[in-house]
Queue: 4 jobs
Job 1
Amino acid sequence: MVYTYVIRSRKDNKFYAGTTADLRKRFSEHNENKVISTKNRGPFELIYYEGCIDKNDVFTRERYLKTGMGKRYLKNRLKRFLSLTG
C-alpha cells in the first residue's frame, strides 16, 4: 500500500499533503523536523489518509488534495473534526 496523507501543524494550523509507503515512519519524521518542507512547523497531527495500491493513483490524489477543489473536499469531509478543533 501507498498512502496519501494530510497533517496539520498545531503551531500554525496549516495543512500539508504528502505521500508515503510507511505512514507511521513518515509522520514521525515530520514531528522530528526531518522533512525540509515542514521543518520547524511541528508538532503535527495526522488528520486524514487514504491508501492506494498503485503509486500513480496516490500521486494523482496528492496533487488533487493540494488544489483549491481538493482543499474544499477536505474541509467538507472533515468539517465536524475541524469545528471541534478550531
Job 2
Amino acid sequence: MYKLVWTQYFTRAAKKFIKSHPDLKERLADVLRNLEADPSQPSLRIHPLKGLLAGLHAVSLTHSYRITLTLKITEKEIVLIDIGSHDDVYRQ
C-alpha cells in the first residue's frame, strides 16, 4: 500500500475541481483509492511525462482530466501535485 501525500496546491486545486465538477467527485475518490492500493493498475493509465515535466507522472481521471503526481517508489509515497484539464495540467 502506498501513502498519498497531498500538497497544499493539490488540496486547493482538488477542492476547486470538485466544486466545478461535482459529477467527478466519486471518480476522483476511486482513482485516489486505486493509486493508494497499487499505482501500476492498468485502469489508471499512469504514464511518465516529458519535457519540462520530466520526472513527473500523470494519471487519467477521464479523457479530458488528469492528475499529475510524483512517485517515490522506494519510500512507497505518491505526492499529488495537480489536477485539472489536460491543457491546464500539462502547461509548461
Job 3
Amino acid sequence: MNCPNCGKEMEHGFVRAESFIGGVKWMTEVSSKSLGLESIAKPNSLGFCFMEGDRCKECHKIVIQC
C-alpha cells in the first residue's frame, strides 16, 4: 500500500494495545472516560488487542483496518 499522505510505500504490520476492559475504542476527543464509546477491537484471552494496518516510516501516517 502506498501512503495517502506522501505516496511512498508503507510497511504492513499491527498496532497492539493492552486492555482487559473493553479493548480498543474509537473517540472523537481525548477523554479519560471510555464507557459508551464505540469498540473497534476486542481483547484476546491475554488482554491484548491487535489491529492490522500499514504505516509510513517517512511521514508517520498510520492506516488501520478495523
Job 4
Amino acid sequence: MKTMVVKETNERIMPATGLAIVGAILDKLNFIKRFNQRPN
C-alpha cells in the first residue's frame, strides 16, 4: 500500500494538483462505488 505524505509549504499550489489529491482520497474511500449504491 502506498502512503501519502502531506507537508506544509509556501509554494503556490496549482488547482489541478488539488484535484488529483481529492481524486486519490475519493478513490481510497471507494466513493464512486458507494455513491452508485445509494438508495434513490
